[in-house]
Design goal:
Distance between the termini: 33 Å
Strand content: 15-25%
Helix content: 10-25%
Shape: globular
Number of domains: 1
Structural class: alpha+beta
């Protein structure tokens, strides 16, 4: 990877991005299929694609992320869960989505925060923060409950510690917009408080 590709984000200009801030909420929906990641999708990608373009116009090294979604739980964790009947959590969630059981779960409005750009492990990507994190956690737990999985395993008890890593426990919910390769796996997983705010209000 070219060093200039990693460093280029420092010279971005963001005059066009502020227009996105006029649209700060968006309806959401759950996907039709379980991909291994617990996620919720924006119901309309138009405004997010405009924001992508604003970032890309100022940064030739970035590429659009084709899968715009909010990760509720990283794919490493469903397989570590079990239903109340002892079934593997990943299999239970796959069955739930295959049967359309997720469609009866209410989804919250996505409330957009700042647009930022961060760097980690050689990755550089831009993202928009989701402000209503409590509602994201509630949705995550509601999906698990619908699959007969007790969310307590995520929080832990005195006898059974949480299965989550410290990074997952403090996840900043977000939608990845762009990265250096144009595929979802090239975006940073866990945004940090030190990431650069690229929004002009």
């Amino acid at each position: 990877m070219d060093v200039s590709s990693i460093q280029c984000y420092r010279c971005l200009r963001y005059s066009n991005i502020s227009r996105f801030q006029r649209t700060k909420i968006m309806q959401s929906l759950l996907p039709a299929k379980f991909s291994g990641i617990l996620q919720v999708n924006p119901a309309d990608e138009e405004q997010l694609k405009k924001l992508q373009k604003a970032v890309l116009d100022q940064n030739q090294e970035q590429q659009p992320n084709p899968k715009l979604h909010v990760t509720l739980l990283h794919q490493a964790f469903p397989k570590k869960l079990k239903t109340r009947d002892g079934l593997n959590g990943k299999k239970a969630l796959s069955a739930l989505f295959k049967n359309g059981g997720q469609m009866g779960i209410p989804t919250p409005t996505l409330r957009f925060g700042d647009v930022k750009i961060g760097e980690a492990e050689g990755r550089v990507s831009s993202y928009v923060e989701i402000e209503n994190s409590v509602e994201m956690l509630e949705l995550r737990d509601a999906i698990l409950e619908a699959a007969n999985i007790d969310p307590i395993a995520l929080y832990g008890t005195e006898d059974n510690p949480s299965i989550l890593t410290p990074e997952e426990k403090t996840r900043v919910f977000h939608i990845s917009l762009t990265n250096l390769e144009g595929n979802p796996g090239a975006s940073i997983k866990y945004p940090q408080a030190t990431d650069r705010n690229v929004v002009i209000r």
